[in-house]
Amino acid sequence: MTEVSKSPNPPSVIASPAPTGMPLLAAAGIALAFTGLVTSLIVSVVGIILAVTGFTGWFREVLPREHREEVAVDGQAEEILPVRVTVAHLQVGEQGHRARLPLQVHPYSAGIKGGIAGGFVMAAIAVVHGTVLHGSPWYTVNLLAAAGMASLTTASAATLAAFSLKAFMVALMIHAIASLIIGLLYGVLLPMLPRYPILLGGIVAPLLWSGLLWSSMNVIDPLFNQRVEWRWFALGQIAFGITAGIVVARSEKIRTLQHLPFALRSGIEAPGLEPEDSQ
Asked: For residues 186 and 111, is the Cβ–Cβ distance under 8 A?
């Protein structure tokens, strides 16, 4: 924040930087130079010439001396001079630390519980999908296992409908890891989005995640991409998100350690540093 003061004897003329169109010429030259990459070589040549001319003229405006011109000042005008004043600093948080948001977060265990609960609900929907549309609860399981088993990438519908212990273990591992990771993400992100956690975590995030997988599944798992019913897939993602979001949102929040001194946050025993209200 600055204040200004008025000079009692303002000058009749002031020296200001002389106007120049060289920066505009240099910018036009650069644009033409890149345009020529997709049009014609002559366009790039003209653009380079214009850019070199513009930069050269621009540099000559300040080197070796800055080009200035005198501008007449209205007799009624007064020169305004800056005056340095004290700046008001931001207030710090508790115990001398700057306040940080969020002040309360969910424990990591809440994210793990949400991921486990959402994983069970999503697995149930997958079993229903396979049973209703393909007559076997193992169809969707084997589709997921194909992401880690090359032997299933060209499997027939009959093979996908049959039970395979190896495919079941691979699918279980993939599903469990993905559920735990996404559950932890929910536990970390939901406190940062305190409004409508179920809407954001149960509908918006699953739809965005489904769209991302839909655009990249051809590379991750070509068999799954060819045979998956994306409506059921999105339904499973939404069910997972709503379940995990409810579990995480209903968990008890814990206060962040940003209000404590560094010695306490790092686990050092330092008598006298802990706030009185926490003893």
From this structure: yes
